[in-house]
Amino acid sequence: MSTPGQSPLALAERVRAGDRSGVAQALNLVDDGRAARRAEALDLLDALEGEATGRRIGITGAPGAGKSTLLDALATRLCSLGRSVAILAIDPSSRKSGGALLGDRFRMGASARDSGVFFRSLAARDQLGGLSEVTGASLDVLAAAFDTVFVETVGVGQSEAGIVDLVETLVFVAQPAAGDLVQFMKAGILEWPDVFFVNKSDLSELAGRTASELRAGIELGRPDASGERPPVLCGSARDGIGIDALIEAIDGHHASLARSEAGPRRRAAGRLARIRTALAIRYGTRGLARLIAQASLERQVDAHPGRSVERIIDRLSARIEAGWAGTDAGAET
Amino acid sequence: MSSSPPKPPAQPTTAPNDATGPAPGGGARRESPWLFRTYSGHSSARASNALYRSNLAKGQTGLSVAFDLPTQTGYDSDHPLARGEVGKVGVPICHIDDMALLFEDIPLEQMNTSMTINATAAWLLALYVATAERQGGAPAKLRGTTQNDIIKEYLSRGTFVFPPEASMRLTSEIVAYTVEHVPHWNPINICSYHLQEAGATPVQEIAFSMANAISLLDHLRDSGAVSERDLAKVFGRISFFLNAGIRFVEEMCKCRAMTTLWEQIGRERYGIRDEKALRLRYGVQVNSLGLTEAQPENNIVRIALEALGVTLSQRARARSLQLPAWNEALGLPRPWDQQLSLRTQQILAYETDLLEYDDLFDGSRVVEEKTRALGLAAREELERVLAMGGAVAAVENAYMKQRLVESHTARLRAIESGELTVVGVNAYRESVESPLVQAGSSAILKVDASAERAQIESLQAFRNRRSSAAVTAALRQLEDAIQAGKNIMPPSIEAAKAGVTTGEWTTVLRRVFGEYRAPTGVAASASVQPSAEDARVRERVDVLSKRLGRRLKLLVGKPGLDGHSNGAEQIAVKARDAGMEVVYDGIRLTPEEIVQSARDEGVHVVGLSILSGSHGVLVVDVVERMRAAGLGDVPVVVGGIIPPDDALALEKAGVRRVYTPKDFDLARIMNEIVDVVAEANAAA
Fold first, then answer.
1. pLDDT value at position B18?
2. Please, are residues B98 and B92 in contact by the beta-carbon 8 Å criterion?
3. Cα–Cα distance for residue pair A102/B669, rounded to 1 Å
4. Where in chain B do CATH 3.20.20.240 domains reside?
5. Chain A interface includes B579 (CB < 8 A)
6. What sign has the CA pseudo-torsion A127, A131, A136, A139?
7. B67-76, B150-159, B455-464: the lowest-pLDDT one
């Protein structure tokens, strides 16, 4: 589980080298609620800051859409192309008891396991939308160790908004069904994803209809976009159809981010949103308001260059708790 | 023999229940009894053949073949996944020479053989037909049953291989083939047996098995696999395999209700008129779920009463019966234990006056009321399943599985609370020492560890002596036939004759159809109202989780090929309700996969479940690999059918707790998991 006495810097070194035991221990550490371990976790995350260059891809969609099968196919294919892959599955099944059944590993096919995909499941715990703060920190660890990191969430609506802050590309998996468009639009799903994949396209002409409904919905839902529309693909994860096209679309999105300002802008916005959300959950909107009354959140975040998101969250938390009034946002130690 | 029983029927293998003969006392007519079988097979074809011949000599009238797990899941004995499993829960059959040896000096033309085989049913039937031909027999004269019921494999037994669609195709091709070429064969035995073992109530048992039969019949009719004219023939050849628990009055009513419902379905849904075809035909293996490890001799009485339940009503009497052994919860039964089960049947059939009367319950208000109530409730549940698209849909959306997991949870809860009395387990536990089990682990059969090696050597010798050109050609023809949508039986029989192995045949099908993982039904299963004890466990989990820094995380998985996942699922659900985060890794895992999972997931404890008897090899392997992966501080606990000597050996190898069927108190197990994790993290 953990090797006591191991320094965070040594652990960071193991993570960067892709040592799986090291990655597993690092994930345990960033999930650890004890104060002494939190300090180590922040040292670890700081050491990895700027090195977490792996691509982060979100996979979301309603239950039963075939996300696990799709991930299995995607991950297997990427491994065969020589990329190292990790999957973080967020399980929503947490109960009042605090317990959860994390069944995703079972639903994942055997092929991804055989290909050596690293797989960690996380219980959604108490946070609305299925993402807990630890998701972001876990991704920071995984992206330092693997070329491609998938994060899978179940959900419609709320969770897409949360996950979009954590990833560079968000894939929405839909299943063929007539008349779901209204539901999609209501839930606000069409605003966020960068790629749409209509799965189970062996289910006759329904898939084509769902795809064109989605395209029409995207036109309506994103009036401001500069002409660039997210691709809507059809395929069947079970039969391995459309997987290469999906990888191409994801790579295409990555390339378009890389050659424009959009990439860094999105990353910065994502970091900011993570910090804002975490603080709002810890202290409520009032606590947050008290903090940004001093200076904009951007400025306060910018005052901690080279620091991990989690470190900044804790620093700003300390400020809120101390009730500081000064505008000395640059109090870097 | 000093006193021979009343003369058994001269030809016990034909038309049981239909023939009649004079009673020994003269006067009253006496029906001929059902077929007596014993589910058996182990180690090797040669050892199993000796066992079958000795059972037949003792008055058994039919055979029931148990295959080992590699054979059931389509692996040759030397495949890596077969390690530790060869010859354990049944006989390994890799090729036609194995099959021929299994039935040496048993003329198949005169035998009635039931084969518990599902995913690879077409292959084992092909080997059986080829063996009969080698004996000089005619396939048209063969009698017997292939279980061939894949739906319940997804729900309970876990030896599925292919996705539902492909499985449905295989099943219906076996049906279509046998109706034409092996007309006395029962091509499918729809099993409610395993549903009860998985926790089904009588209503669920009736409803889900009927839904299963309907999905098959609809498929046969709609796909054109059989003609409208042959549908009545097919309907008449479908048989059922039921379970019978200790509530034997209700069980008898269940059989009567099923008889009525089946006839209604035949008339209403399929327009069958032939009275004989409409009659429900079923075999029974009585309950293993209720057999106890504590005071195991009590099981002798349970088994006899359960046998009575399915033979008592003449109108709904089983056609064949196999009884488990009294010591099944301790380990593999010995020949003597199986003999006792056979004698139980013989006493019931030949000593008692059971077979001298017409139906005892016709006109009984109580029985008819109970039967009607069960039938109505089952019909309602059946309609619900049909409305969601039938049995296949209700497997894929996990509806049936969830209901079973819930029923099973409720049953275990009732035993824990004492609401359901189990003598010797939660009541009347004081006991003098049993002379039957004083011998310790010698009171069970131990499969010779050298059996696996011998089987692999014989397989390799077989591969060397066959014609590889003939094998290649046969496999190509098999694949072509499948791709072209032709019936799989003829090329499979040719492949059997050419010397193709079980693993090779299944590899072709795996390539064409792909493999399937069935939903577990665990994640969505509802929690039950926690008891006071549960609340205490939950608090301990909370406290320990705080100390650990993370919520207590448990990995549950089944190493090896054994697919009986009910126990593992109950532990997973209970642990979730106790506040643990549970990674449920499911069935058919290699030790490597389990260790990889434990590491990636960062669990605090690993729980393994294994019922196939291969714990000695696989569990020790997991423990050693954990240590090698630097996870030596993560404790491992094990549950399964594990004899005391083996349990000691496992503990010596580093396993922290070993649970057996007598450990029905899940709250206690949860408490001990907390203890084990607390001990392992004492320094934390």
1. 39
2. yes
3. 20
4. 35-417
5. yes
6. positive
7. B150-159
Residues of B with active-site annotation: 39, 193-194, 558, 562, 564
Interface test with B, best of A102, A146, A150, A236 (most B CBs within 10 A): A102
H or E segment and range at residue A15: helix A8-16
Q: Per the CB < 8 Å rule, is A99 touching B601?
A: no
| 3-class secondary structure, B275 | helix
CA distances from B13 to A255, B32, B325 (A): 73, 11, 23
The C-alpha atoms of residue A313 and residue A293 are separated, in whole angstroms, by 17
Q: Yes or no: say if A53 and A165 are a contact pair by the CB < 8 Å rule.
A: no
Q: How far apart are CA B202 and CA B253, in angstroms?
A: 9
Instruction: Say what the pLDDT of residue B80 is.
Output: 84
Type of residue at A156:
V
Beta-bridged to residue B144, according to DSSP, are: B113, B185
Instruction: Kindly report the number of other CB atoms within 10 A of residue A321's CB atom.
Output: 11
The answer to whether B517 contacts A103, with C-beta atoms less than 8 Å apart, is no
Rg (CA), chain B: 25
Q: What is residue B5's DSSP assignment?
A: P
Q: Enumerate residues 66 to 95 of chain A having a beta carbon within 8 A of any beta carbon in chain B.
A: 91, 93, 95
Cα–Cα nearest to B84, from B669, B525, B654, B619: B619
Strand ranges inside B261-398, DSSP E = 282-286, 320-322
pLDDT in tens, B341-382: 999 999 999 999 999 999 999 999 999 999 999 999 999 999
- Is the Cβ of A109 closer than 8 Å to some Cβ of chain B? yes
For residue A25, which residues of chain B lie inside 8 Å, CB to CB?
Answer: 602
Please identify among residues 592-631 of chain B the ones whose CB lies closer than 8 Å to any CB of chain A.
593, 596-597, 599-602, 604, 629-631
Distance from C-alpha of B364 to C-alpha of B261, rounded to nearest angstrom: 19
Alpha carbon of B257 to those of A16, A33, B41, B207, B368: distances in Å? 65, 57, 33, 11, 9
Cα B476 from chain centre? 33
Secondary structure (3-state) at B321 = strand
Residue with structure tokens 């098959």?
B216
Confidence check on the interface: ipTM exceeds 0.85, yes or no: yes
Interface contacts A/B by beta carbons within 8 Å: 111
| Cross-chain Cβ contact B600/A100 below 8 Å | no
CB pair distance less than 8 Å for A110 and B515:
yes
CB B63 within 8 A of CB B104: no
Comparing CB atoms, the residue among B549, B582, B683 nearest residue A100 is B582
- pLDDT at residue B424, rounded to an integer: 93
Judge: B520–A105 Cβ closer than 8 Å, yes or no: no
Confidence category of residue B187, pLDDT binned at 50, 70, 90? very high
Residues of A in contact with B546 (CB under 8 A): 33
Q: What is the fold, at CATH topology level, of the domain defined by B35-417?
A: TIM Barrel (3.20.20)
pLDDT digits (tens, 9 = 90+) for A69-80: 899 999 999 999
Residue A329's pLDDT band (cuts 50, 70, 90): very low
> Under an 8 A CB cutoff, do A101 and B545 touch?
no
B585/A106 Cβ within 8 A: yes
Q: Which of B288, B321, B314 is nearest to B302 (CA)?
A: B288
Residue B584: which of A24, A102, A119 has the nearest Cβ?
A: A102
Partner residue facing A109 (CB), from B517, B575, B581: B517
What backbone torsions phi and psi does residue B498 show, to the nearest 5 degrees? Answer: -75, -10
Determine whether domain B532-680 maps to CATH 3.40.50.280: yes
- In chain B, CATH 3.40.50.280 sits at 532-680
pLDDT at residue A327, as a whole number: 46
Q: Cβ distance A86 to A119 under 8 Å?
A: yes
pLDDT 10s digits, A256-289 = 998 888 888 999 999 999 999 889 888 888 888 9
Mean pLDDT of chain A: 84
